[in-house]
Amino acid sequence: xxxxxxxxxxxGLVQMSLGAIVVLMTATLNRLMVVELxxxxxxxxxxxxxxxxIQITRPNWGFRSDKGGRRTPWIIGGMxxxxxxxxxxxxSIPILENNFRLGMLTSLIAYLxxxxxxxxxxxxxxxxxxxxxxxxxxxxxxxxxxxxxxxxIAITAGATGVMLDxxxxxxxxxxxxxxxxxxVSLTALAMWKVETEQNxxxxxxxxxxxxxxxxxxxxxxxxQFAIFxxxxxxxxxxxxxILEPYAGLVFGFTPGESTSLSGAQNGGVFLGMLxxxxxxxGLNLGSLKVWIVSGCIGSAVSLFGIACLGMGAPGFYLPIxxxxxxxxxxxxxxxxxxxMMSLAGQGRDSREGTRMGIWGAAQAIAxxxxxxxxxxxxxxxxxxxxTVATAYGSVFLLEAxxxxxxxxxxxxxxxxxxxxxEMVPGE
Length: 427
Fold this sequence. Notes:
The protein is mostly helical. It has one domain (5-189, 209-414): MFS general substrate transporter like domains (Growth Hormone, Chain: A), CATH 1.20.1250. 79% of the residues lie in helices and 0% in strands. It contains 15 helices and no strands. Helix 1 packs antiparallel against helix 2 and helix 3 (58-67) runs antiparallel to helix 14 (352-385). The longest helix has 34 residues, at 352-385.
């Protein structure tokens, strides 16, 4: 089965739906816990870390979808679980305000469901793209679907920022419920008859999960790429839990303004991805190595600027710097995704889901670790420095340094035929 361009766009709607729910959990609810409820930054950091940590099961989802036939039930089912978790997470905000223990229990269950939903739906969707997209279309398919996801994130964050002022708990729950239920419905419609035939399991798929994972990890390029994904995504996600509180505490942004800031960042990501897609894919200029390294370095420079703005610059400049950060993040991300889609179908046959699961797990663990690291580092630096601006600025500089290390690693990996025709050792 080869996906048509129309089917690829339909799968992009699933990515858009997934991003729309997740951005509310990792951005808006995080800010509300830290600023409005005056809770330590480490608390939402632990919750978001839980949602990423549970995604260590991604290889298992991918392996199961490889052994099965149809990936559609996993995609729709995972999105339904994700939507349920999103609504429960929003409901936990007023509960936290009145009963901390009950609110924490509700939040833990909610973010556990969010992690399961993202893992099942996202991994199965990537596996479907890798197995059902013609090789010549894979890079373009990855670009299209991720641009649509970023568009969903940016639109949701921007629209929610406008609708959420003046803020109330009731309004928050209503907005999240509408977005979550809409995302699940859109996913079901988008997946309608996309898979026109049952995938036939190969003899290799009769192996155990542990054996399958071991065999994929023995592939040098798969292993090296997983390590690179972990390091770079740690840097990518470190600011996720601290950017909106930074805007609120240092620049005095309202909940709506700080949520719109997230929309500006993801709008920049969209433009960065679009730029690489047009120049690299359309005009055939630049290599994946160039775009990955440039994106990492540009992200580091942008983070340096964001840290410096906290020393007394007007808040007007913060959205500009954040948009620049998003732009370079997008450059790096789409180049990495292009490599991932190309590598997924290489090596042992019929293991696309397992391979994407390993890389997805590396990304998810890094995202949880990076977000938690940023939140914990801010709390530590507040205690050490005594000033909010210095604390946040120090963490942004640490994030910039990790991006520079990632750029150095990318130069080494990408120079060694990162997208090679064969990844299996000894074959």
